[in-house]
């Protein structure tokens, strides 16, 4: 059985652990097709539309957070920004990347 959480609720739950990692953080553009999003998400279509307009005119203001585990990127937050980029046909998205061991990834997936 799949459990669908509203994106903002999940973001609130996951944000603290991602930000508390004591790892070097780097900002970089990552191809959308290289970011795995392992948990189902629901997005608010109106929020995505508003972000599409903002991103199209001003660019992305706030990078999404991703974990880099064994050379793979995993996204758990920023689902509205991610979807807006997809719908705009963008190939990459600005990310705040934190390297983490597989044990941290497993905690996010639990």
Automatic annotation (TrEMBL):
InterPro entries xref list: ParB/Sulfiredoxin_sf, ParB_N, Sulfiredoxin
Gene3D superfamilies named in the record: Conserved hypothetical protein from pyrococcus furiosus pfu- 392566-001, ParB domain (3.90.1530.10)
GO molecular function, one term: ATP binding
GO biological process per UniProt: cellular response to oxidative stress
SUPFAM superfamilies found in the cross-reference section: ParB/Sulfiredoxin
SMART domains: ParB
Recorded catalytic activity of this chain's protein: S-hydroxy-S-oxy-L-cysteinyl-[peroxiredoxin] + [protein]-dithiol + ATP = S-hydroxy-L-cysteinyl-[peroxiredoxin] + [protein]-disulfide + ADP + phosphate
Tree of life domain: Bacteria
UniProt keyword Oxidoreductase present: yes
Keyword Lipid metabolism assigned: no
One CC-aspect GO term: cytoplasm
The protein's Enzyme Commission number: 1.8.98.2
Keywords associated with the record: Antioxidant, ATP-binding, Disulfide bond, Nucleotide-binding, Oxidoreductase
Pfam families xrefs: ParB_N
CDD domains associated with the record: Srx (cd16395)
Domain ParB-like N-terminal: 28-110
PANTHER family in alphabetical order: PTHR21348, SULFIREDOXIN-1
Membership in a protein family: Belongs to the sulfiredoxin family.
Protein's name in the database: sulfiredoxin
Annotated organism of origin: Gloeothece verrucosa (strain PCC 7822)
């Amino acid at each position: 059985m799949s459990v669908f959480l509203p994106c903002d609720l999940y973001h609130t739950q996951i944000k603290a652990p991602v930000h508390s990692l004591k790892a070097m953080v780097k900002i970089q553009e990552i191809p959308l097709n290289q970011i795995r999003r392992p948990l189902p998400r629901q997005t608010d279509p109106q929020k995505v539309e508003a972000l599409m307009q903002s991103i199209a005119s001003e660019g992305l203001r706030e990078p999404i957070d991703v974990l880099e585990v064994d050379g793979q990127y995993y996204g758990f937050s920023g689902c509205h920004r991610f979807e807006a980029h997809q719908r705009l046909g963008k190939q990459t998205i600005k990310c705040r990347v934190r390297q983490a061991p597989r044990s941290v990834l497993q905690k996010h997936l639990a």
